Amino acid sequence: GAVVSQHPSRVICKSGTSVKIECRSLDFQATTMFWYRQFPKQSLMLMATSNEGSKATYEQGVEKDKFLINHASLTLSTLTVTSAHPEDSSFYICSASKGHVNQPQHFGDGTRLSIL
Amino acid sequence: AQTVTQSQPEMSVQEAETVTLSCTYDTSENNYYLFWYKQPPSRQMILVIRQEAYKQQNATENRFSVNFQKAAKSFSLKISDSQLGDTAMYFCAFMKILGGRDDKIIFGKGTRLHILP
User: Fold this and answer.
1) CA of A32: how far to CAs of A19, B63, B83, B84, in Å?
2) CA-closest candidate to residue A104, choices B21, B83, B59
């Protein structure tokens, strides 16, 4: 079946550091990838939609300069949390879709980001 | 805007029992998908079951089945013969069919299900 790989699975770093998270579709071409954020014991909140070859579409309230998204190829999207602060600590999950009707989204295993 | 509501934050049932998780949604769309996702402690999101709105027949996947009431905008999940491995957070989700890009999934707040031995 389709697999989405997310790396790293866990990051601990100091405040002010920029952190890059990768989302790869391993056995299919993903025209669209989605980035979610999940706080403890809460639901997934969509941050942005990443389309290959074009700028990401950010949800209301998400700072595009804070959360940089690059969808450079049909198998890779990256989320960079710039100058991370403790309030950015969260669980980040990506999902990938082939972009056609009836194609389900496949989720990565998530990245737990902890900013000290 | 679409909304998904799960009114049960937490539930506990004995192993082998049947449990039903509730979900209601609000939309003006006619064509959409509804999903139930499972998120175990490992945090991976696992698709449990999917329902197309245009289908009247309720979807089933082994021990998992749904009761889809389109007019009432209700989409409950029934887990039969519950097992310890069913312990997880369950999210009800909605996605309108846009024909490809930007098919966003909107999640409910989740129901934490505990299966007790």
Assistant:
1) 22, 32, 35, 35
2) B59
Among B105, B112, B113, B114, the residue to mutate for chain A (most A Cβ within 10 A):
B105
Residues of B in contact with A57 (CB under 8 A): 102
| Residues in B touching A93 (Cβ below 8 Å) | 43, 45
Q: Do B45 and A100 touch (CB under 8 A)?
A: no
- A to B CB pairs, distance under 8 Å: 55
Could you read off the pLDDT of B35-78 as tens digits, one per residue?
A: 999 999 888 899 999 999 999 899 999 999 999 999 999 999 99
Where do the H-state alpha helices sit in chain B?
none
Interval A28-87: pLDDT, tens: 888 889 999 998 888 999 999 988 888 899 999 999 999 999 988 889 999 999 999 999
Select from B71, B59, B56 the least CA-distant residue to B24: B71
**Is B105–A46 a contact, with Cβ atoms under 8 angstroms apart?**
yes
